[in-house]
Write a structure and sequence with these properties.
14 helices; Aspartate Aminotransferase, domain 1; Aspartate Aminotransferase, domain 2; seven-stranded mixed beta sheet; alpha/beta; single chain
Length: 394
């Protein structure tokens, strides 16, 4: 049996990780992997997480399973963090998942059960796991224009033109904030226009919000998601705690289903629990419990929010530094978009050949489409990257 297996497509980012590790140069720079790093190159454990872990270690009396959907207190804390009071709590079903990727997978399986003929619409470009999972599940998929290669901003006219072709019952996957891989985000009025279009078409939004707090702050980053959920009868939301709590290896995520009424909510809740049972049974609890403790404890939450804000502003500062360094070297503002993008990523417009040249000549590693992780930089490496971008002719 095993001898009949076919080779699977290589993951480009994981291949990049291996190339970086195998590179003997001491001055190499990793801008590929989507993990936050501080100025020293480490992904630190947040102080609030450390304190919560200490409290949990002292108080935890059992390692027994939680419920199939996870601890209800985690679902309630995440609902309040992401949705606030934009929709009534009794309309929201939720289940803990192994990371944000697990939430996306469960959302797509939920869609398969509820609307097997639905087409899932994804932005072009998007996070590579989106189309990969959709294809693996054998679901119908279409893309909508999103990124304007000339301005490095959102091609909103193209996006709306493509979404005019959405059919009733289709699903439109949106990035809640800090679009991956482009860093270009919708404005408030644009979110409102998307909500109007989806409502008119009878389509269901699936929002992937993996970077809340990394863009313009916790509240601002959730504004689009809240607007959509408040205006549409149904919304699916896949959320990750990996980035904003820095607990990547704890695999902490949640899938929320905003239903039109309490009866539909109860069916959705039962279905989410069923899907968890089929895929992994009981979800991980350690990270979810830490998040719950932090969000429900005023002192821990204040510490967490302050540290998260420092992370956010450090990335904004790096963006500004890089944009200014490129402006100085080129005498042009054509890289000003870097300072306007939000989150960890930007696509700078380099060709695959130019990306390869930066890697070969300067030890700078970024994804072939020129997506780079801003958080992989520091004050010392910003000028090195700026020099490499100019030398490559970007």
């Amino acid at each position: 049996m095993l001898t009949t297996l076919q080779d699977q497509p290589k993951d480009k980012i994981l291949m990049l990780v291996k190339m970086f590790r195998d590179d003997p140069r001491s001055d190499k720079i990793d801008l590929g992997v989507g993990v936050y790093r501080d100025a020293s190159g480490l992904t630190p454990v947040m102080a609030a997480v450390k304190q919560a872990e200490k409290q949990l270690w002292e108080a935890e009396a059992t390692k027994a399973y939680t419920g199939l959907a996870g601890d209800p207190a985690f679902a309630d804390a995440m609902r309040r963090l992401i949705l606030a009071d934009s929709v009534p709590a009794e309309r929201v079903a939720a289940a803990a998942t192994p990371g944000g990727t697990g939430a996306i997978r469960q959302a797509l399986e939920l869609i398969q059960m509820a609307a097997p003929d639905a087409t899932v619409w994804i932005s072009d470009p998007t996070w590579p796991n989106h189309p990969s999972i959709i294809k693996y599940l054998g679901m119908k998929m279409q893309t909508y224009r999103y990124f304007d290669e000339a301005s490095r901003g959102v091609d909103f006219a193209g996006m709306m033109g493509d979404l005019e072709r959405v059919q009733e019952g289709d699903v439109v996957l949106l990035h809640g904030c800090c679009h991956n891989p482009t860093g270009a985000n919708l404005t408030g009025p644009e979110w409102s226009a998307v909500a109007d279009l989806l409502a008119a078409k009878g389509a269901t939004p699936l929002i992937d919000i993996a970077y809340q707090g990394f863009g313009d702050g916790l509240e601002a980053d959730a504004a689009g998601t809240r607007l959509i959920a408040s205006r549409l009868p149904e919304t699916l939301i896949a959320a990750s705690c990996s980035k904003n709590f820095g607990i990547y290896r704890e695999r902490t995520g949640i899938l929320m289903a905003v239903a039109p009424d309490a009866a539909a909510r109860d069916k959705s809740q039962a279905t989410l629990a069923f899907l968890n049972r089929q895929n992994f049974s009981f979800p991980p609890d350690h990270g979810a419990r830490l998040v719950t403790m932090i969000l429900n404890d005023p002192a821990l939450r204040a510490d967490w929010e302050a540290e998260l804000e420092a992370v956010r502003t450090s990335m904004l500062d790096l963006r500004t530094q890089l944009a200014k360094a490129l402006q100085k070297r080129t005498g042009s503002d054509r890289f000003g978009f870097i300072a306007q993008h939000r989150g960890m990523f930007s696509r700078i417009g380099a060709t695959p050949e130019q990306v390869a040249k930066m890697r070969d000549d300067h030890g700078i590693y970024m994804v072939g489409d020129s997506r780079m992780n801003i958080a992989g930089l520091n004050a010392e490496t910003v000028p090195i990257l700026a020099d490499a971008i100019v030398a490559a002719g970007v």
